[in-house]
Amino acid sequence: MVRLHVKRGGESQFLLEAPGSTRLAELAPLAARIHNGRLKVQRLCSEMEELAEHGISLPYNMQGLTEEQIKELKLKDEWAEKCVPSGGSIFRKDEMGRRNGFAPNEKMQQVIKKTIEEAKALISKKQVQANVCVNMEMVKDALEQLRGAVMIVYPMGLPPHDPVRMEFEDKEDLSGTHAGTEVIKESEAQLWWAGKQLEETKLLSDYVGKNEKTTIIVKIQKKGQGAPGREPVISHEEQKEMMLYYYRKQEELKKLEEEEDDSFLNAEWADNHALKRQFHGVKDIKWGPR
């Protein structure tokens, strides 16, 4: 299996394994699917952290309003009584005004937070350092873990307008958001390697050869964005180590220059003729009047 170290821009994302016989028309969409799946897990984790802290999302017409404005407009959250967390709730006001403030109790909060940690670990960029490949099964596993935690804490479900539920139902609206720009449609995905676009009509082996143990760094991006930046000759970590080495070397040279002093030449032990004068009995002779 050929190992692909997938990057987006200059940042590592995940490792992906594929046979050399894989057609690029299939590989690029697969990489995009994993990339988008990881983004969905990250968005869900972020929204579920808010869910654990401040409860369910308010209806759109109530978000951002003060309590006085809600009373004045005679607005009511009909979902607050339907979507009660298991074991009751504790009130934690959402300063952003997006959620109703009725958070799950401490025990249920821990269920959500622990699951978030486990899901993040599955699709983390640290998996690259650990030399662990990510596949769609791992992404689906992370999503199912998150879904299970929400069902435990909110057995009655979440409001249809809650971002967490919308993510699970693939109804999220990312238009006009930064998160939306990070998503790559499978039909628009392109892979680049060594400054070359990997053409969809070719096989992976057409570029990397027959060696199935090869590891290459590929960059994923949308069609029409042009060639991505080339990989640096040395990595960021290697560059830091080199800079640190030369800095230490420079400091050592400075120290040697500061300590360079030839005053020791006037010392008695540095006199090459001292021993000769001692044998001749002319040591410590002083000239001039006493």
UniProtKB/TrEMBL annotation:
Pfam families assigned to the protein according to its UniProt record, in alphabetical order: CFAP298
UniProt xrefs under InterPro entries: CFAP298 (IPR021298)
A biological process term (GO) from this entry: regulation of cilium movement
Matches recorded under PANTHER family: CILIA- AND FLAGELLA-ASSOCIATED PROTEIN 298, PROTEIN C21ORF59
Family indicated by similarity: Belongs to the CFAP298 family.
Protein's name in the database: Cilia and flagella associated protein 298
Annotated source species: Cyanistes caeruleus (Eurasian blue tit)
